[in-house]
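hey so i finally got around to running both of the ones u sent me last week. sorry it took forever, my laptop kept dying halfway thru and i had to restart like 3 times lol. anyway pasting them below in the order u listed, first the sequence line then the structure token line for each. didnt double check formatting much so if smth looks off just lmk and ill redo it

first one:
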Amino acid sequence: MISGAHMVIYSTDAESDRAFFRDVLAFPHVDAGQGWLIFALPPSEIAVHPDAQGGRHEVYFLCDDLPTTINELARHGVECTPAINAGWGLLTHFTLPGGGKIGLYQPRHPMAAGLVR
């Protein structure tokens, strides 16, 4: 029934954030026209958490080895917050050039990614 998902990150500096996804994260992409890049993502999953008001959404990237990924991002000048053990995973955040925050974690929970072909 559902063939995929499309996520939108709103930015005060979309051009710089697109360059970050293209050049630092090296996500494959297509140009939808006039520099509007659409990025392919690695296998992904979505979770639904309770929230009294609803309507809030967050983006987290996953990695297999958080310390190694933090070091790789640092080589590109990206600063991450100190990693914490959140129980369900090792967690950090970094800021996009446009000011948006992205979570990054090494999961310790069962993964749903890969269940869908």
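and the second one:
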Amino acid sequence: MGRPIDTAVTAARRARLMERLGDAVVLVPAARSRNLETDYLQDNDFRQSNTFFYLTQLEQPSAWLVLSAHAAGADTAVLLLPDRNAQQERWTGPKLGPSDLAVRLTGVPTVLSAAKLDSVLGAAKARRVPVYVPLDRYAQGLAALDRLRADTSVTVRSLRPVVDSLRVVKDAAELAALRRAIDITAAGHREVIQRLRPGMFEYEIEAILEGTFRSLGADRVGFPSIVGSGPNSTVLHYDVNRRRTNPGDLVVVDIGAEYAQYTADVTRTYPVSGTFTPRQRAIYELVLGTNQAVIDSVRPGITLGRLGQIAREYMRTHSGDLCAPQTCEVYLIHGIAHHLGMDVHDVGPGNAPLVPGMVFTDEPGIYIPDEALGVRIEDDVLVTPTGHEVLSAGAPKSVAEIERMMRRPAAPVRRPGREE
């Protein structure tokens, strides 16, 4: 079934949703398992729908949540679970079926067999109120939803904007999961710093950090790990990770562990040989200063757009002749911030004022392909009532700390039985 469910948290989320909707019915399908025979699976075959997880914390496929919201009167919640199949569970492991145990573990007061979905929907439609459905990929190809949308007597509305607006400001349980994911990710960075040396393949670095993730309880990676060395450091979303590092390379390590459906996103840039060259250090310090200028500006009321302007203003005015005849701002080729949560690019208003409880990234970078020189530094930042908290502070980023941690006797890279 997954991790234990905080039933008080999920009940409070459902109550907030139903209060916002007034008279309505909410129908939320869980994600379905992928096909082991036809899909190319890189991890396990299932990750829950964010909307379903937010309202239930239940990590089980092919379930349904039906909420009946009443502007006046008691709201109701019904969870529908597939009936257990002993033969199938020989292959997949035990599942949670409709039972008193399911009521106790999920905190949903009524748990029925998914076979009763049509009768539950029939009762819901009889209320003649709008039916809210998350019209996303999880709702595609489901016969019950196709029939619902084809029924001209039913007003179907999209649930995602409403739930997404609730998810923008993280509650205490979400922040706890994010902190854990970010702490695990920072540990991965520290492990890489300790073990990085010339001659390693990018995939060896990836193995170190993802092994650290798993050893500390991460469920999976939040996105494909980016380990770009030398020329690959200038490619924003490079994730092939096959190049062998050379002495003098920089390596951009952009990674995120996922824990309890919440992902980190922390980037650091390291000198493979253990010390930055003067040129690398100058570019690195400019990016680091830009990163800090953004952090220093975070407070309630500011917007991500304004933070992007601050980043570019700082880089432009502090470039000196590093990128002459231009300023280094020309090599900052992407935005510097996005919301963070269950998705690495999480839901959030594009340029609305930030409020306490929002979490976003701060990730300036400079990418100079002609020099095979790329630097990105990314932190995860929580907006607080009085300013901000850098959640990713556990990942070292000062030149002095990185070089100190990398100072160690040189060791050859040995791969028995492999020709190179």
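quick thing i noticed on the 2nd:
The first strand starts at residue 24 and ends at 29.
anyway thats it, ttyl
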